[in-house]
Amino acid sequence: MAQRQFEFPKVGLLIPVVVVLLILFAKSTVTVGPGEGGVIFETLGEGINTEKTYGEGFHIVAPWNKMIVRKVRQQSISDEMNVLSVNGLEVKVNGTIWYEPEFENLGSLIKTKGEDYERELLDPAINAAARSVVGRYTPEQLYSSKRDVIEQEILDEVTKLLEGQFLTVKRVLVEDVKLPPTIKQAIERKLKQEQESLEYEFRLVTAQKEAEKVIIDAKGKAESNRILSASLTDKILQDKGIEATVKLSESPNSKIIVIGSGDSGMPIILGNQ
């Protein structure tokens, strides 16, 4: 009995120790999900450790440190910006930009720009690039024919602004350009008139080409007849007539009577049935 009384206190002390160890272990484990990366914030050190980025999977971290997990796959944000065209007209541009943090430099990105680096870094760069590029064009160009060019120019501008900032922009899409209703209607009327003018011009060109074709065909036929007429003599015509008469006389559906000859020397055929 004395031995049992001596063991019970040991068991009672072991349980709290196990509980504490389990809590410390739970606080020391971090799972980085698909498409994510993690960096360590060293509470007793110099803050963000910029030397290593942790990839997907299960990781053990000292309980006094913190793992900051952020998405490192390609992401997108959309925004509507009020910008001025080249003639000072205010337009609204709806756009989407695709970007991704540099995985190896995630620690440097968070250390220099904070965890909310999209708001601190990406938003100002997009707005500055959009204002710079859109300000080069007229409302008509923005509304119709320059969309692809504008997207590429904004991408180039954003890339320059973010150079060396550990954030890569992949693509820019200008989804919509909103103009004041009166300006939009004026542009649409002008575009419609231009389209109708092009259609009318096309019909004129087509008609002219058809007329030229008819003239060429007529000239060709006239020249052919002139050459044929020049080559036909009375002797040739007489021989052709005799050949035709012979073929007609051989037809089973005809009865032919030849009496004398005509003024041209050709036989006179009577009695066709």
Automatic annotation (TrEMBL):
The principal location of this protein is: membrane
Instruction: Give the record's membrane topology.
Output: Single-pass membrane protein
Which PANTHER family does this UniProt record tie to the protein?
PROHIBITIN (PTHR23222), PROHIBITIN 1 (PTHR23222:SF0)
Q: Which CDD domains match?
A: SPFH_prohibitin
- Naturally occurring in which organism (per UniProt): Tenacibaculum todarodis
**Where found, per UniProt?**
Membrane
Report what the protein is called: Peptidase
Q: Ranges for the Band domain?
A: 27-191
Q: Which InterPro entries match?
A: Band_7, Band_7/SPFH_dom_sf, Prohibitin
> Which terms in the GO cellular component ontology are assigned?
membrane
